[in-house]
Design goal:
The chain is of the alpha/beta class. It has 14 helices and 15 strands. It binds 3-[O-phosphonopyridoxyl]--amino-benzoic acid (PXG).
Length: 405
């Protein structure tokens, strides 16, 4: 056993169950382990590494800004934050942004904004504001956010939980219509559920939700931490249905796979509920994060990564569809955000991932039955061909073993 693996097992809290590989270097779509073995990264840190590992433009932006000015806190203006948020607003059609660091912090920011907007603009009675969320949601790990998860493991023995949330069926616009009351401040939704297993709602769902929210003066807040910034083949997954949400949450790829950078963006009348002293973060919006975030967004646009994701995603789905294996249930995806459902009666998604690792392909199961394929958006067609070949061979191996036993 590797000593790095032993050390991590001994000293790191066991809040994850990592696959047995010790990574030490990354470049582009590849990472290498301690022994020098090379892997194609089809996980991209849950979509955070859309630009590829150690992207030279991002490393240059990082080092140049680190040598200039990194952290000063929001007690002062800096020459980097305004231009970063301007670009983010222009690319997403939002008016203003509030910078944070991790995804969960940006979701918390959205929740605070929605509640305060509910009281101060919509006129909901004190402490009555409700936020509607979906079954199978994943929005992060803070105490408030797990309070509205329907995953028992995420909540167990972390109570007392935060009230004020109502869970409805994902993908069912009528359920939203029924659940709304005069106390509803917002509907918080992932345009495609990532951790839920790459779950794609029915066509037109988001648009219907937007209409319902508009009719009832309820904020539609899209959590695009995982689906945003080109992952699904458009800049935002909401763009597939020409939906502009009232609030938008970004994270992961916003930091270019180098730093944790997140933000909540919204219409001006929503963002105006924040006045000095009502919300903040020591690191949120620091010049280092702003410089890297600006470069990350510029690369997406200049290198047309959303368009690339759309084209290569369709290609990947087409190639996967040609695989002939009893183990495969549904194959679904949008852009380079693809899930391969493994029939649990015939094999486990984790076993598929473990076998793929031994062949130099990194992926991670989600919800036990889904193999997630989400490579950096700079991946090439040839690299995808190689990956599909490996997946095909692994499924064949598992099929043969199953039939032999
Ligand atoms: N919203 C969505 C849609 C996400 O996928 C978050 C919010 C939270 O982001 P942070 O940066 O706080 O992790 C995510 C995160 C995990 C885990 O084990 C989380 C994610 C993906 C895989 C594993 O906590 N997504």
């Amino acid at each position: 056993m590797s000593s790095a693996l032993d050390l991590e097992d001994r000293y790191c809290a066991h809040n994850y169950h990592p696959l047995p590989v010790v990574l030490s270097r990354g470049e582009g779509v590849y990472v290498w382990d301690e022994a020098g073995n090379k892997y194609l990264d089809m996980m991209s840190a849950y979509s955070a590494v859309s630009h590829g590992h150690a992207n030279p433009r991002l490393v240059a932006a990082l080092t140049q800004q680190a040598e200039t000015l990194s952290i000063v806190s929001r007690a002062f203006y800096t020459d980097k934050l305004g231009q970063f948020l301007k670009l983010a607003c222009e690319l997403t059609g939002q008016d203003m942004a509030l910078p944070m660091n991790t995804g969960a912090e940006a979701v918390e920011t959205a929740i605070k904004a929605a509640r305060r907007w509910g009281y101060e603009v919509k006129g909901i009675a004190a402490d009555k504001a409700e936020i509607i969320v979906c079954s199978g949601n994943f929005h992060g790990r803070t105490t408030t956010i797990i309070s509205f998860s329907d995953e028992a493991d995420y909540r167990k023995n972390f109570g007392p939980l935060t009230p004020g949330f109502k869970i409805i069926e994902y993908g069912d616009a009528e359920a939203l219509q029924t659940a709304i009351t005069p106390d509803t401040a917002a509907f918080l939704v992932e345009p495609i559920q990532g951790e839920g297993g790459i779950v794609i709602p029915p066509k037109g769902y988001l648009r219907q939700c937007q209409e319902i929210c508009g009719k009832h003066n309820v904020l539609l807040i899209a959590d695009e931490i995982q689906t945003g910034l080109g992952r699904t083949g458009r800049m935002l997954a909401c763009d597939h249905e020409d939906v502009r949400p009232d609030g938008l949450i970004l994270g992961k790829a916003l930091g270019g796979g180098i730093l944790p950078v997140s933000m909540f963006l919204a219409r001006k009348d929503v963002m105006d509920v924040f006045v000095p002293g009502t919300h903040g973060s020591t690191f949120g919006g620091n010049p280092l994060a702003a410089a890297v975030g600006t470069e990350a967004l510029s690369i997406l646009v200049e290198e047309q990564l959303p368009e690339r994701s759309l084209e290569l995603g369709e290609y990947l789905l087409g190639q996967l569809a040609k695989l002939d294996s009893a183990l495969i249930g549904e194959i679904r995806g949008s852009g380079l955000f693809v899930g391969v459902e493994i029939d649990p009666s015939l094999g486990s998604a984790r076993e598929v991932c473990e076998r793929l690792i031994t062949r130099g392909l990194l992926s991670k199961e989600t919800h036990e039955t889904v193999v997630r394929l989400a490579p950096p958006l700079i991946v090439t067609r040839e690299q995808l061909d190689w990956a599909v070949g490996q997946i095909g061979e692994v499924l064949q191996e598992m099929d043969e073993m199953r039939l032999a036993s």
